[in-house]
Amino acid sequence: MPCETMRCWVMLLFFLVANYSHYCVLGVSQVPCLFIFGDSLSDSGNNNDLPTTAKSNYRPYGIDFPSGPTGRFTNGRTEIDIITQLLGFEKFIPPFANTSGSDILKGVNYASGGAGIRLETGTHLGTTISLGSQLTNHRVIVSQIATRLGSHDLARQYLEKCLYYVNIGSNDYMSNYFNPQFYPTKRIYSVEQYSQALINELSLNLLALQDTGARKFVLVGLGLIGCTPAVRNSHGTNGSCAEEQNAAAFNFNKKLKALVDHFNNRLSPNSKFISIHTALNNRDGFLVSDAACCPLGCIPDQKPCDNRSEYVFWDEVHPSEAWNLLNAISSYNSTVNPAFTYPMNIKNLVGCEIKRDLEFTDKTTSQLSATE
């Protein structure tokens, strides 16, 4: 029987991933640790205790997550949650706001809902943890890892084997540039100038992250922000996407790809950068792609739709777990496609040094077990 539905394709993709994982992972994670930087697309609870309206630690958020609401801005797992599982981690990476002890050796999630590359982005909602502040938090963790491993040199050797996932930038448009009532950026920059300013600032943060020992980077491009229900509704586009917002996202993504090339050509041969992009222009199999399963702001205890797996969007901005699943599997295990994963997928990025990484990780774990 031909595979005609999205669920069928996802099952086939899972079969391919499972076969690769069995062949490659050997019962342990493919990298020793994973560090996550970003916004609400990756936040797993860092905003819960912040004075901000950008929160999701209440039902119906988390309605399909095993432990219920956690601060994830979707009904179940985020895209990076699923990638974490595909990488072979037994547990999700904990948020910086709620991590301690040896947990930090597996990685930390610094992402913050409403945050952006720019410091001011999202501040009209309340306190946010910008990318620069997330990097400051990472330095704290790096220092703690150095203490646990016995020296900064050992910490650097360990951190060089880890994966660094950076998914941020949407709010710099949706909660900054295209919000002129709160921010002056649209009066100061053209779309081209603003995209370049964002890339320049992102570049500085990535170089600073590299200075802490980071070597394997996943940089996530922007989705079609003009196609989110929130933007469609606010612009009265009668169901069509807002082209100005989408053009801005395309402009940013083009520059992000060029940044990947620049870093791969100029930095140490041990440093590898890839970019991945959403499949939002390929919504076959999803019955609803222009409305939210949990509309009107997804207020506390609101009843969402029953057919959540058929919706691209969970609320008016954030994707559903079903959509996250499709993108996560494609990011991890897709065939090389410059329009989606460039110049390789996550599997290839982490696969080239798995045996050496695991040897170092096993040795480090044994040392820690003897001292704790």
UniProtKB/TrEMBL annotation:
It is found in: Secreted. GO terms for molecular function: hydrolase activity. The keyword Lipid metabolism applies. One of its GO terms (biological process) is lipid catabolic process. The keyword Magnesium does not apply. It comes from the Eukaryota. Keywords: Hydrolase, Lipid degradation, Lipid metabolism, Secreted, Signal. GO terms for cellular component: extracellular region. Its main location: secreted. Residues 1-27 form the signal peptide. Belongs to the 'GDSL' lipolytic enzyme family. PANTHER family: GDSL-LIKE LIPASE/ACYLHYDROLASE-RELATED, TRIACYLGLYCEROL LIPASE. This is GDSL esterase/lipase. It comes from Flemingia macrophylla. The lineage of its organism: Eukaryota, Viridiplantae, Streptophyta, Embryophyta, Tracheophyta.
